[in-house]
Structure formats: C-alpha cells, structure tokens
Amino acid sequence: MKILLSILMVVLLTAASFAQTKAPSESAMDRFLRYVKIDTQSAEDQPAPPSTKKQLDLARLLEKELKDLSVQNVRISKWGIVYGMVPGNLADNGKVPTIGFIAHMDTSPSVSGANVNVIVHKNYQGGDIVLPNDKTQVITAAQNPDLKNLIRDDVITADGTTLLGSDDKSGCAEVMTMIDILRNNPQIKHGNIAVAFTPDEEVGGGIDKFDIEGWGAKFAYTVDGEQLGDISNETWSARTATVTFHGKNTHPGTAKGIMINSMYAAGDFLGNFPDNAPNRPETTEKRVGFVHPYSSTLSEETSSIKILIRDFDLSGVAAKEELLKQIVAKTQAKYPNVKIDYESKLGYLNMKEVLKNYPQLTDYAIEATKRAGLTPEIRPIRGGTDGSNLTARGLPTPNLFTGGHNFHGKLEFNSRKGLEKSTETLVNLVQIWAEKSKK
Ligand SMILES: [Zn+2]
C-alpha cells in the first residue's frame, strides 16, 4: 500500500510538473499545420539526395526556426540534411551523453502531398470520419480501433484527395516543439541534444549521407512511429538470396542433344516451395518471418531468382537459408546438367542485436512514455528504418511514436493529443537521461 501511494505521488507530481511548464511559443499542432502545407514528396530512383528539390523548402524553414530558437551549429548539408545542437543546461553537460532526435521531412511517393487541405475535426465524438472532398475515403472506427481513444480530441486529416503528411511532419513538429518548450523552461534540466531533419526516408538513400560524427550524438531516436505509446527497438534481420541456374543455349532448330534450358530448373525450384512452410509474407504477421521470391529473369542460358529472407532472430534467418539450400539441392538432383549457384548477402541487421547492449535507450523511453500518462508498447517493425542503418553504423537508434496513423495513404490522421503527448514524451525523455546519467 505504501509503495502504491508513493507511486501515485510520483505520478501526480510528474503530471503536475508538466502541466506547470510554460507553453511553447507555438503549439505542436500549429507547427504541424504549417509544415504539412509544404509539399515535400520524395521520388524514387534519383541519383542523390534530396531526390526532389522541394524538400529544401521545408529544410530552409526548419533551419530558420532552429536558429530562432537559439539552437547552435545549425546547418543544411549538401544532401539536404538539417543538423543542429541544443546545448545542455547542466553544471556539467559532459556527464550526460548527447542524445539525438531525427524526423524525416519527405512524404511518400505513393500519394500526392501537394496542396494538402487540412481538416481539423474539432471535438471528435466517435464514429467513422468521411473525408469531405472524396466521400469514398472513410476512416472507419472498425478499422481504426485507436479512434475510440480520440473522443473529444481534435482529429487532423487531409480532405480525401492527398495524404496528410503526418509521416513524418508530426515528428518534425514534435522535435521542434520540444526545443521550444525547453527554451521557455530553463528549470527543465537536460544534457546536450542533437537534432536532425532528413530528406528521402521514404525512398532510401538519404540516411546513407548522414554525418554521425559531425552531429555528435552518442545515442539517438527516430521520431517516426505511429500510435501513442509505440516504441520500436527491433527490426528484421534481412538477407537477400540469389539463386542462379546455368544452362546451355543453342539455336532451337539444331538443339537436339545440346540445349540445356535453365528455365525448367528455375520453375522446378519455385515449385518445390512448400505451400505453408517456409512462411510467406501473405501468410504471416507479428513476429513470424518469411522467405519471399520477389523477382526473376528467365532465359535458356541463364535464369535467376531473387528471394527476400526476413526474421527477427538470426537463428531464424539461418534456418530459412538452410531450407532454401535444401530446395536448391532437390532441384539440382533432378537437373544434374544445370549448374545451380546459391548466394546471399546481408541487407541489414535487427537493431536489437546492438540495442540489447544498451537497454537504457528503451527503458528511458518507456519511463518517458509513462510519465506522459501513456501506456508504452514495444512493437517490432516488420521492415527496416533509418535507425537500422544508423544502429548498424554505430549510432544506436530505436524509434518513437508520433501519434500518427495510416501512413502513406489518404486516410492518414493524427490529433492534437497525439502531437502534444508525443512532444511531452520527448521533453520527459531528455530529463530522464539527465536524471539517470548524473549519478
Ligand atoms: Zn516515416
């Protein structure tokens, strides 16, 4: 009982303390509504980031806002990445590791992000939300169970003709508002904070140009997740296998006894995939990995098939590779004249393989989420993130929620509470790092 009471006191005190903080000069919501008006759609298959010049419109605005908030060392790299450093306000900032926050500026190439017409559904009362300019676009309560947590909140959507851009302008607005709150509240103690806004997350390539050393963070978080409370410290471990079938081509008119058509062996190989095992993307979810043939070239002389191998555990990846090799062996036995090569290469590693050595990154994020009155949920990502790239390069970087939903589509939404609670969590997080590291 005593313990319960003291927990209650801590909860009440921390809740009260955030309520007492001085408001930012601009709310997370107002910032967000400004950012989504700027078209930052990225494009596939461009030679170098930023893939579209219009992303620089937002980059330059964020650069100016960082400077206005007295952030130091603000710069835009030639790749369109915006960097800055918020100095700590501790007696000895050196005792607390520099923590980084990253949000991406671009929106998905799959749906237009031009002329976003934002609709704020004030004091949402539950039920389906029909988007006014295309009434076939409906955010249904049935398919969006989190909507029931947003009753009396202000829900933010586009008008049904574009995406909203919550992914990831929510993250941009939340990181910027965190800086604003810290500036207005010097009583909130924190170490040095590195911030960055990146282009081309949706098309890949932007993060390859990220200057980890110049930025200065020891640990970082991407602010690019979804539902309030969701924290991700796991991604797939990914390998790509290529199976090549070598036959022998000759003119079909004089091919008797000479031609060895590799296509039959390739077809046999695919036909040997069991219906249910190994698992396929279309039959799996949650923590279950898969193998997935996704592209091929076929001709008499040479055929090849590319296969994605995905699992959260390296042992699972190894087991799937073993299975593929067994299928290769079976086909090889049936087609001894076709030489079959198997090779595979690493795509990226589950960030957990690194993050397990730094449990405090996740623990402090959980604590920060709880202090914001939210329920933390650890959710593995069935894919990779910019954080997987950074983690593999030596900067451990899990992913935090933004309050957004339905990324990359016209049904995207966030809410006032989503933006504000995510921002509050970031403010809590930098305090927690300062509290825990000083000892
Ligand atoms: Zn994103």
Structure, described:
- By secondary structure, this protein is of the alpha+beta class.
- It has 2 domains: 2-231 and 351-438, Aminopeptidase (3-Layer(aba) Sandwich); 237-348, Alpha-Beta Plaits (2-Layer Sandwich).
- It is 32% helix and 19% strand.
- The protein has 11 helices and 17 strands.
- The chain has an 8-stranded mixed β-sheet, covered by helices on one side. The chain has a 4-stranded antiparallel β-sheet with strand order 12-13-11-14.
- A hairpin with a 5-residue loop joins strand 1 and strand 2.
- Zinc ion (ZN) binds next to helix 4.
- Zinc ion binds at residues 104, 167-168, 201, 224.
Portion of residues in helices?
25-40%
| Distinct ligands | zinc ion
CATH architecture of the largest domain, by name, is 3-Layer(aba) Sandwich
**Helix count, DSSP H or I runs of 4 or more residues:** 11
Largest sheet geometry = 8 strands, mixed
CATH superfamily of the largest domain: Zn peptidases
Radius of gyration: 25 Å
Poorly predicted spans: none
Structural class: alpha+beta
What is the total tally of β strands?
17
Query: What is the string of helix and strand elements?
Result: HHHEEEEEEEHEHEEEHEEHEHHEHEEH
